[in-house]
Amino acid sequence: MPAEQTGRRRPLDLAGIGIGPFNLSLAALAARVRGLTTAFYERRPEFRWHPGLLIEGTTLQVPFLADLVTLADPTSPFSFLNYLRLRERLYPFYFAERFHAHRAEYDAYCRWVSGQLPGLHFGHQVEDVRWNAESGLFEADFAQLDAAGGAAALGRAHARHLVVGVGTEPYVPEALRPLVGSPTADVVHSADYLPHRARLAAAGHVTVVGAGQSGAEVFLDLLRARPAGAEGLHWLARSPAFAPMEYSKLGLEQFTPDYAHYFHGLPEEVRDDLLPRQWQLYKGIDGETIAAVHDELYRRTLGGGWPDVVLTPGVTVRTAGRLGSDGIELHLEHAAQGARETLRTDAVVLATGYRERPLDGLLAPLEPLLQRDAAGRPKVDERHRLVLDPEVTGRIYVQNAERHTHGVGAPDLGLAAHRSAVILDDVTGAEPYPLPSRTAFTTFGLRQDRRARPGEAAPRIPGPCAPDPGTVRT
C-alpha cells in the first residue's frame, strides 16, 4: 500500500496528471487563486517541449500572446512579456517586430514558468487513480522516480478534482512500424529528429514522410545541410498537395471559444465527419516555411540543372522492409494515378504526427464510472469534464484529449489559457478569471444558446441545419 503523500494534511482541491504546456498554464493561473490548493505530477525529470524539433529558426504557429496566461490574465507575472522583461530582452523583442516567438524561446519561457511555481512534482509518475466514495475524494497513486527511471518511493495524493493533461505521443503508421527500433534500419520519428540530425545529414539518401509543419521543417533543414546537386532527398505526402495552413483572419476564428462551443453542440456523427475535412487547419504548412523550401530549391538551380530532390504528394506507404544490412525499401501507391512503385532509401524520417495518449490504462479503475460515446471514446462535456456516473461528486477535467468533442482547437496553444480559466472557474464555483461573452465575428450555426456559467447545468446546443465545413493548428 503506498504511503500517504507527505506534507499534505488536507486534500488537494485539484491534482494534475502531466505537466505539458496546458497543465502548466492551469498551474500558473491557479497560483493566483487565493485558497486553492493544487499539485501537478509529471514523470519526466523536468519540463521540455518537443526538444527533438527545436530546429534553429523555427517559430510557433501562434502569436506570442498565446502564451500560458495572457489571454485569460494579461496582468499575470507568468506572461511571456514579463519573461522577456525580467531577462532584459523586451526591447530587442520589440524592435525585432516578431509576432511569432522562436520555438526554442517558447520552450525556455515554459521552463522559466515551471521554475517559478510551487506544487510541480517532476520525476513523479502517476500509476492509476480511483474514486473513494466514502471520503468523496480521488486517490492518485504515484511513484517518485530516481535518475534511472526506477521507483524510489511510492505515494498517494487525495484530491477533490483531477485534471489529466498527459499530452500526445508520436504516431507511426502501421506499414512502417516493423522498421522502428530496428538496429539495421535508420528510421526515426520527427519528434526525435535533432538527436539523429548529424547521422541523417550524412546518409546517402533520406526520405521524409509527411507534409505537415514538422515534415516541412525537417525537409528544409536536411536540404540546407546537403551539397547542391547531391541532395539525395525524397519528400512524400499522403495529402493531395504540399498545402499551406489556413491562416486567414476569419478562418482562424475556428480556434476561438465560440467555435468550440458551436462544435460541441453538434451531433457526434456530424463532428466525426467534420474533423477529417479540416485537415488544412492542422496538417498544413505555414506560408513562410513553404516559401523558404521553394527559395532553397530555386537557389540550387542558379548554376543550371535541378537539385537531386523529389517531392511527391498524394502518396501512401503500403508496406516497408529492409534491404541488406542498412537499406530500406518503401512500397508506394498513388491512388489518384492508380500507380505503384518501390522506393529504395537509406534513412526515413517519419513526420507522421501525434495521437492523443490513451487514458484507458490510467483511468482503468474508474472504467465502470465513465460514460462513452458510440465510438467508445470518453464523453466530455462543454467544460472539459469527463462525463461520470452521477454518484461521483468529484470532477475529472481533460486537456488536449477532447478533439472529438471540442474540435480542432483542442490541441491549439492559443486556447490554453481560456481552457484553464474555464476549469478554474468551474472548480471554484466562482469567476477568478471572467470569460468573454463573445470571441469571434463569425456566427457559427443558425441557433445560438448562451453558455452555462460555473455551477449551472450546461445548456443544450442544437445543431444547425448544415455544419460549416471549416478548417487547425498545432
Write structural notes for this entry.
The protein has helices at 21-30, 80-86, 90-96, 103-116, 193-202, 213-225, 257-264, 268-274, 279-282, 287-299, 403-406, 416-428, and strands at 12-17, 38-42, 120-122, 124-132, 137-145, 151-164, 168-170, 186-189, 206-209, 233-236, 309-312, 315-323, 327-334, 339-345, 347-350, 354-356, 396-398. The chain is α/β, with parallel strands linked by helices and 474 residues long. The strands form four sheets. Strands 1, 2, 3, 4, 5, 6 and 17 form a seven-stranded mixed sheet that branches. Strands 8-15-9-10-11 form a five-stranded parallel sheet, covered by helices on one side. The chain has a three-stranded antiparallel sheet with strand order 12-13-14, with no helix packed on it. The two termini are 40 Å apart.
In short:
The chain is α/β, with parallel strands linked by helices and 474 residues long. The protein is 23% helix and 21% strand.
Tag the structure with descriptive keywords.
5-stranded parallel β-sheet; 474 residues; 7-stranded mixed β-sheet; alpha/beta; single chain
Per DSSP E runs of 2 or more residues, the count of β-strands stands at: 17
Low-confidence stretches: 1-8, 457-474
Envelope shape: globular
Rg over alpha carbons: 24 Å
What distance separates the N and C termini? Answer: 40 Å
Structural class: alpha/beta
Q: Quote the average pLDDT.
A: 91
What does the largest sheet look like?
A: 7 strands, mixed
* Quaternary structure: single chain
Helix content: 10-25%
Q: What is the number of helical segments per DSSP (H or I, 4+ residues)?
A: 12
Listing every helix as H and every strand as E from the N terminus to the C terminus, the arrangement reads: EHEHHHEEEEEEHEHEHHHHEEEEEEEHH
Our estimate of the beta-strand percent is 15-25%
